[in-house]
Design goal:
Mean pLDDT: 90
Number of domains: 2
Number of strands: 22
Number of helices: 12
Radius of gyration: 23 Å
Bound molecules: zinc ion
Largest sheet: 13 strands, mixed
Helix content: 25-40%
CATH class of the largest domain: Alpha Beta
Shape: globular
Distance between the termini: 65 Å
Length: 454
């Protein structure tokens, strides 16, 4: 199939929002009926328990009466299926066993991994979502992709390699498991022009390349760097380091083994990731505590809830993963039409200051906007573990220039406190500290410090 232009699937990707809404609603209704008919668990626990049947769902408000599902409940459903049927697939898997041809899994770093069950149709959906992302970023058959993320069954492993291959790219699935040496050896050997990995591993490769590969990372031939697992392109200083370190365009992207996919564009300032799968995944926002619906208006912040609307295997329905997102409904400067989102952090990280919910990631986001006056690094100091905080919210922020004058520091503190106050409705007490004085581990920098004897 010959593809031209900027989009993999132009008809769908350029569909006006109103028509997309119609399509979503049609697919949602069809999916709800399918879930009701094929999963005893959905039928009893998500419909009958609250007095619903698919026929009674005529509006968004009706749909939102369906109880949310969490990751813990997903685990419980697997256990319960194991107990009842002797396998973990029974309760929310809607397709017959012989149609299920792949199991993907979350990494399960805490607790039992949650499983995604996929039919051939679902795998095709997944591959199309990958194709939409990479095609928009400019990849075409002929590009060679070093997939240095995972070799495993996890969603960023084999399913990702399959997706890259299905759209006609050449994939070198080197994984991250063999470390920097193996990745760099294969970069020299296979001549990739695309690299997919975590931004922190990307930084590590830049550092190690002269020693291991005998050349700077910008001489490896990488022209596209795709950040996965952690934000990279959304953090200006990190984006700059990766872009200059590899001499590559840098993108954030998300979406592995399921129907929720997004990718960032080149616009500056960073406008979030474009949501590329509205025809397969219906998004909602809810308040993190009471789980009440929040309207999807421009700038709205809430816990993300998703429902697969074109899925056969184990279709997730009103699934709340605990991710806090901000959505943007106004058109992006790049011209791509759909809504965008930023992943702000986990809802578990939430703090409460005088009744106002504050997310450390949202605070960090604002501090990052003040680069180069700050380094972007900050931490919140708590007397005891959250979420309740004795006001004021105390924080340390690294200023950006060693030779900063006292009056400039006072001005910076004022501007920072002003922005945080205005946008997050909380007045912080800020202490400025010298650049690179806050502790930095090898992994993600902790945003909260709990003072032992406070
Ligand atoms: Zn854009």
């Amino acid at each position: 199939m010959e593809k031209k232009g900027q989009f993999w699937n132009e008809k769908i990707e350029m569909l006006p929002p109103k028509e997309m809404k119609t399509l979503q609603w049609k697919r949602l209704k069809r999916q709800l009926r399918y879930n009701y008919e094929n999963s005893v668990y959905y039928r009893e626990e998500k419909f009958h328990r609250v007095g619903l049947t698919p026929d009674k769902i005529r509006t968004l408000e009706d749909f939102q009466k369906i109880p949310l599902m969490t990751k813990d409940e997903h685990r419980w459903v697997q256990e319960e299926s194991l107990r009842r049927f002797g396998h973990p697939y029974g309760l929310i898997t809607c397709a017959p066993r012989e149609k299920i041809i792949r199991i993907n899994s979350t990494s399960g770093t805490t607790g039992m991994p949650t499983l995604y069950t996929l039919t051939r149709h679902d795998i095709e959906v997944l591959n199309e979502m990958h194709a939409r992302k990479y095609w928009r970023a400019g990849l075409r058959p002929g590009n060679i992709v070093l997939q240095a993320l995972s070799l495993s069954m996890f969603t960023g492993g084999l399913p990702l390699s399959d997706g890259l291959q299905a759209m006609g790219l050449c994939v070198v699935p080197v994984g991250i498991e063999g470390g920097a040496r193996r990745v760099l050896d294969f970069a020299l050997l296979t001549k990739p022009d695309v690299l997919i990995t975590t931004p922190s591993f990307g930084e590590y490769l830049i550092e190690k390349s002269p020693e291991i590969a005998g050349r700077q990372a910008d001489e490896l031939g990488i022209r596209w760097f795709f950040c996965a697992g952690e934000p990279g392109a959304g953090i200006p200083s990190l984006r700059k380091r990766l872009a200059e370190g590899f001499n590559a365009r840098v993108f954030d992207h998300t979406g592995g083994g399921h129907a929720f996919h997004g990718i960032s564009c080149d616009s500056i300032p960073y406008p979030g990731m474009h949501f590329l799968s509205p025809d397969h995944c219906f998004l909602e926002l809810v308040t993190p505590e009471a789980k009440l619906p929040i309207e999807m208006s421009d700038g709205a912040v809430g816990e993300m809830v998703f429902t697969f609307i074109d899925w056969e295997g184990g279709p997730l329905m009103r699934y709340a993963l605990g991710d806090l997102v901000q959505v943007f409904m106004e058109p992006c400067t790049c011209g791509w039409p759909e809504m965008r989102f930023k992943i702000l952090g986990r809802t578990d990280d939430m703090l409460i200051v005088k009744g106002v919910n504050v997310y450390p990631a949202a605070v960090k986001d604002i501090v990052g906007e003040f680069i180069p006056k700050t380094t972007g690094a900050m931490r919140i100091l708590l007397e005891k573990a959250g979420p309740l905080v004795n006001p004021p919210l105390r924080m340390q922020v690294e200023y950006g220039f060693t030779e900063m004058r006292d009056q400039d520091k006072e001005q910076l503190k004022k501007e920072l406190a002003g922005q945080i106050g205005e946008r997050l409705r909380v007045r912080p007490s800020i202490e400025l500290v010298p650049p690179y004085s806050l502790p930095r581990g090898s992994g993600k920098m902790p945003m909260i410090e709990i003072e032992k004897d406070g």
